[in-house]
Structures are given as structure tokens and as C-alpha cells.
Design brief:
By secondary structure, this protein is α/β, with parallel strands linked by helices. It has 19 helices and 15 strands. The strands form three sheets. The protein has a seven-stranded parallel beta sheet with strand order 3-2-1-4-5-8-9, sandwiched between helices. Helix 15 links the parallel strand 13 and strand 14. Helix 4 packs parallel to helix 5, helix 12 crosses helix 17 and helix 17 packs across helix 18. The two termini are 24 Å apart.
């Protein structure tokens, strides 16, 4: 494939943006795409066929209600068997399938775009999710810059970069499955200068295997290595938050660009922009804001464990009764597929009766809107990176219950380095849930964490100001990378 710009040089630069096909990756890629659109780019946003159907079904406000001539949605298959369901796909299977099956249809899509006889400009750059590196090959084939967008933080990426060294030193793989519970994961890893006293348990959960050939362990190492061959790497973070790690990464990676928190950057766009465009895979509860409006300022704990975390029935009950016994107002998002082996997710009538005046349960919501609401006092979260960044950008402290992947390192930094969170034990008990909610909302430790959250919010706002580090980084990315081989008459 060759990209010919001749005769179309007066047209817009054209960025093709392809996220990993899950909610936590689609959201930040969409925001980045909206920011690039505001800079004058024509955007093609590539979803999986399965997720595109879910987006149409969810009727997310503003999504696909408008026809944008210069912001186009396209689809490719993800390679998994088709299902007619409204559930999160099995993430390991999705990772392996996209790696093996998506290059060919993505290549065909690029050919279709570049051969389009209408007024669609040729592709001038490709921005791909950091675990969708097949897109890097496609970019090389058509001779355009490719940028890896890491939807995790820089700390997580640094951990991934060091996995081969952990294997080389005999630290990984685990010698026995008992190493998961016998204290071995508390081994301190001391060869990353910018990340002191890091424990093995804070590395991505995919390391918890005894098999050197484990597919997901090798997937992470392979994608991390291949992403480092891109023209540049974007991190959804800001300089002040991860300065030391970013400094060290800059010595071993392509040019790095820190652009975040994304929601603060998009919030500043003009009303006529696409700033309100959203892509939620579940139907949003439009009544939750009205319920939050009825509550006093700083009186509600918001509970949401994201788009992938699944609970056992016992964990669901412990969280439920912990919330009930705290006597605090709560807004709890429980996805329809959030509980293992239970499609109905029926909570006890006693719990419903006990909390009817101070609790609201929904299937999904616009999280940014909720976190920015004045009634929210704390965020009970799985520590997905989007949630951490949205929380920091909103100045809301976190109660952290990490589930898998990079959530463990996110939790460590939120609680121990940035001071904006408090961690609860993985083996959740209702008494501990009640205790940590009360401490966060009423206790001395909670006051400290809230103070830190307010301080980091100010730094996030500074980073996304007109002359802030993230704003300047976005401009530099556009000028130095995305437009590096593109010129206009």
C-alpha cells in the first residue's frame, strides 16, 4: 500500500484512531480523537463490530445521533465468535484474538479509505492502543507516522518494560502456585531507580503464573516491546504526577507525550466541538444526577468497579452490607454482568429496605458527570487508570480495591505516593467496608486524603491550562509527529 497525498494536499490531515475494544480503552481514545478533531484533523475512529452494535443499542447521548463529515466511525471484526449479548468479552481471549486476527481487516480498511474517491482525505497518521501493535505494521506499510497510546500510566509501562529482566534474574515465573499466597509476592524489586520499594504484587497480575510460556505474560512483554518501535508514545497522565518515571522512560523509549487528564482538556473545548460525544457500551442511567441533586454536598460515596471487574456473590453481599451499615448515602453502579454466575443480581429485600432512603443502584452512568457532582465525597473504585485520572481531575479521594492487570500499581501509587487513596483488603469483609467508608468520610485519615486530592486537582488543572504541560505536549505531538510528513498548500 502506498499513500498518495498528491492533489489532496489542501485537505485536512487524517488521523485513524483504533482503541483496544473494551470500555476503558475506548473512552480515552475517543477523548484524544476529539482533541485532535478540535486541532483540525479529520478522524476515523475504528471500533470492533461487536462494540459498535452495543453502542447503537446503548443509545449513549450524542453518539451516532449526529452525522459528522469529518469524524467517521468505522468497524473491523475482533476475530472472536459473534455473540448477541450485552457483556464484556473475555479479556485474555480478546487480547490474543486482536493480535492474531485484526491486521488484515485493518489493512483493508486503510486501503478502502485511501482509495475513496469522495472528499475523504488520505490517512496521514495512525494512533493505536498500546496493546494493538498490529496497527504499527499497517502504518509502516502506508508510510505514515504511528503513535502508541498507553491508556495505562507510565509506572505500569515501566513495570512491563522490566518483565524480561525479572525472568532473566529468576524472579519470574513463580516456582509454585503457593507463591501467590505465601508472601513471595511481597518480594521487593529494587532495580528501577524511579520506583523505590516496589513489591512483586504490584506488577501486572499476569505475572502470577508458573508457566514461562504463559500466553498473557508473553502478550504483555511482546506488545510493550513492539509499541516501543512507534514514532512516539502518548501517556494519559501529566508531568507532575509521574515526573521521575517519565524521565527514566524518556531515556529508553521513543519521544513521550503526556496528555492528561483528558477530561479536563476536552472540558475546555468550545460548545460547538464534539466535547459531549460519548461511547458507553451500557445504557446510562439518566436519573442518577437528579438523585445526586437531592443529596447534601459531600455526603455520597460513589461505588463503581469499572467495566471488567467481576464479583462473587459473597463479595457482592459483603460490599452491600458494608455500605448499608456505614449509614452513608451511596450511589452504586453494578453492571448486568458484574457478578459471577448470576444474571439477575438480586440483592436481599432487607438490604433494599434498609437503604431505600440513602442508596441508589444503577447499571451504568456517565462517570465524569458523577465525579464532578458536588454531593460526591468519596469514590470506591477498582483503580482502573481512567477512574484514577477522572478522580484526580475531579479532586475526589479514592477507596481502592484493585482487581487485576495494572490496577495494583495504580492503587499503590494512589495510596502511598500521591496520598489520594486508601486501600481495602482484597478479601473484602462488610465490617472493613463500613470502617473504611466511615474513616474516609469522617475520620482524620480521610481529611488528609481529601486534602491531597484537592492539591492534585489543582496540579491537574495547571497541567491542562493553556500553557500547562499537557496542553503544550498535545501541541508538540501534533506539530512534531502527526504532521511530520504532511504539508498543505
Amino acid at each position: 500500500m502506498e499513500c498518495h497525498n498528491e492533489g489532496k494536499k489542501s485537505q485536512k490531515a487524517h488521523a485513524v484512531c483504533i482503541p483496544f475494544p473494551s470500555q476503558g480503552h475506548i473512552n480515552p481514545m475517543l477523548k484524544l480523537s476529539i482533541l485532535l478533531h478540535s486541532k483540525g484533523f479529520h478522524i476515523t475512529f475504528v471500533n470492533s463490530e461487536y462494540n459498535h452494535k452495543r453502542l447503537l443499542k446503548s443509545k449513549t447521548p450524542f453518539f451516532l445521533d449526529n452525522n459528522f463529515q469529518d469524524f467517521i466511525f468505522e468497524t473491523i471484526p475482533d476475530g472472536l465468535p459473534l455473540i448477541d449479548a450485552d457483556v464484556t468479552q473475555h479479556i485474555p481471549s480478546l487480547c490474543l484474538s486482536t493480535k492474531e486476527n485484526c491486521l488484515a481487516p485493518f489493512r483493508e480498511l486503510l486501503i478502502k479509505i485511501n482509495n475513496n474517491s469522495s472528499n475523504v482525505p488520505p490517512v496521514t497518521c495512525i494512533i493505536f492502543d498500546g496493546i494493538m501493535t498490529f496497527a504499527l505494521l499497517a502504518a509502516q506499510e502506508i508510510g505514515v507516522p504511528s503513535v502508541s497510546f498507553r491508556t495505562t500510566n507510565a509506572c505500569s509501562f515501566m513495570c512491563n518494560k522490566h518483565l524480561p529482566l525479572l525472568i532473566e534474574n529468576g524472579i519470574l515465573p513463580l516456582k509454585d502456585e503457593s507463591d501467590i499466597t505465601n508472601g513471595y509476592l511481597d518480594t521487593v524489586i529494587d532495580f528501577m531507580p524511579s520506583m523505590k520499594n516496589l513489591r512483586l504484587r504490584e506488577f501486572p497480575s499476569q505475572i502470577r503464573t508458573t508457566n514461562i510460556n504463559d500466553k498473557m505474560l508473553n502478550f504483555i512483554m511482546g506488545e510493550t516491546e513492539r509499541a516501543s518501535k512507534a514514532s512516539a508514545i502518548i501517556f494519559h497522565t501529566f508531568d507532575a504526577l509521574e515526573f521521575n518515571v517519565l524521565s527514566d522512560l524518556s531515556l529508553i523509549c521513543p519521544p513521550l507525550y503526556t496528555i492528561g487528564p483528558l477530561q479536563l482538556l476536552t472540558n475546555q473545548l468550545q460548545e460547538k466541538s464534539l466535547k459531549f460525544l460519548r461511547a458507553n457500551l451500557w445504557k446510562e442511567d439518566e436519573n442518577c444526577v437528579k438523585w445526586l441533586n437531592s443529596k447534601e454536598e459531600k455526603s455520597v460515596v460513589y461505588v463503581n468497579f469499572g467495566s471488567i471487574t467481576v464479583l462473587t456473590k459473597n463479595q457482592l453481599m459483603e460490599f452491600a452490607w458494608g455500605l448499608a451499615n456505614s449509614k452513608k448515602n451511596f450511589f452504586w453502579v453494578i453492571r448486568s454482568d458484574a457478578v459471577i454466575g448470576d444474571d439477575s443480581i438480586i440483592l436481599p429485600s432487607e438490604f433494599i429496605e434498609e437503604t431505600k432512603e440513602r442508596g441508589l443502584i444503577s447499571r451504568w452512568c456517565c462517570q465524569e458527570q458523577v465525579l464532578q457532582h458536588s454531593s460526591i465525597d468519596a469514590f470506591f473504585t477498582h483503580c482502573g487508570w481512567n477512574s484514577v485520572m477522572e478522580s484526580i481531575g475531579s479532586g475526589v479521594p479514592m477507596i481502592c480495591w484493585p482487581f487485576f492487570a495494572d490496577q495494583h500499581i495504580n492503587c499503590r501509587y494512589a495510596c502511598d505516593e500521591w496520598g489520594v487513596g486508601m486501600e481495602i483488603d482484597k478479601n473484602v469483609k462488610r465490617d472493613e467496608v463500613e470502617k473504611i467508608i466511615r474513616e474516609m468520610m469522617d475520620g482524620d485519615k480521610g481529611k488528609e486524603v481529601k486534602k491531597k486530592a484537592s492539591e492534585w486537582k489543582i496540579l491537574a488543572e495547571e497541567a491542562t491550562g493553556i500553557e500547562g504541560s499537557s496542553s503544550l505536549s498535545l501541541d508538540k505531538l501534533v506539530k512534531d509527529v502527526l504532521l511530520s510528513n504532511y504539508s498543505v498548500n
